């Protein structure tokens, strides 16, 4: 449930109270109504359900706020498990306000007749923006510069304009990254399960690499933009990192487990690659591993 709680305001809906260990008496939402109950993050104009929206929701649902749910921590698990599902016989849906559903046990949830939904287009632009921001920050040492008035020559960084960007995963977000990178006159390579159409490639001046190895050794920046699946687990490991340029930078905006974190630490410490800019890590948060460490929001930049 913790993973669900971080993804957005609306989590699940049930005809009965969808909270393990809570009763009508101790959740402060006492009602005899048969309206469904909805578990929500919090009442907030910026980080949760807006007040005017809450009033509309209350006409159709009884809201249980997540801080009340957390009072029963002993009943919670990192993921939705059998015990929780068994306690919610009328649960209708698990709603994840994000793209990835790798934090959910889909076969298990489906076996209870519960639907799972997500919002696949919600953060496409924001994620692509973050990828570009991380790449620029790592290239110019923005996050790790020790001085705001004088910068020695070795902190100047590397050029982004005209550099080669290799995008692993050319889906919606990967393509938006390519659109942005074109504005920096970058040479764009990509590796994907399915090749884009010639027209789509032409629009962003992208070249397809059928083999990931060909992308790795040519790229100055490698950006990982794939879903986490059994096939992509530790997709970037020691072998893949060794194929990158020693001046190369790895940017990960997908899922932390797509990169073998131990192999990445070793590659950074040994100088196998120049830098890594990480929006996600495995585990999170990642301990400091070098002379520079910056955190902004849900983002880590490590050198």
UniProtKB/TrEMBL annotation:
<dbReference type="GO" id="GO:0005829">
    <property type="term" value="C:cytosol"/>
</dbReference>
<dbReference type="InterPro" id="IPR036291">
    <property type="entry name" value="NAD(P)-bd_dom_sf"/>
</dbReference>
<comment type="similarity">
    <text>Belongs to the D-isomer specific 2-hydroxyacid dehydrogenase family.</text>
</comment>
<dbReference type="GO" id="GO:0030267">
    <property type="term" value="F:glyoxylate reductase (NADPH) activity"/>
</dbReference>
<dbReference type="GO" id="GO:0051287">
    <property type="term" value="F:NAD binding"/>
</dbReference>
<dbReference type="InterPro" id="IPR029752">
    <property type="entry name" value="D-isomer_DH_CS1"/>
</dbReference>
<feature type="domain" description="D-isomer specific 2-hydroxyacid dehydrogenase NAD-binding">
    <location>
        <begin position="132"/>
        <end position="287"/>
    </location>
</feature>
<dbReference type="InterPro" id="IPR050223">
    <property type="entry name" value="D-isomer_2-hydroxyacid_DH"/>
</dbReference>
<keyword id="KW-0560">Oxidoreductase</keyword>
<dbReference type="InterPro" id="IPR006140">
    <property type="entry name" value="D-isomer_DH_NAD-bd"/>
</dbReference>
<protein>
    <recommendedName>
        <fullName>Glyoxylate reductase/hydroxypyruvate reductase</fullName>
    </recommendedName>
</protein>
<dbReference type="GO" id="GO:0016618">
    <property type="term" value="F:hydroxypyruvate reductase [NAD(P)H] activity"/>
</dbReference>
<dbReference type="Pfam" id="PF02826">
    <property type="entry name" value="2-Hacid_dh_C"/>
</dbReference>
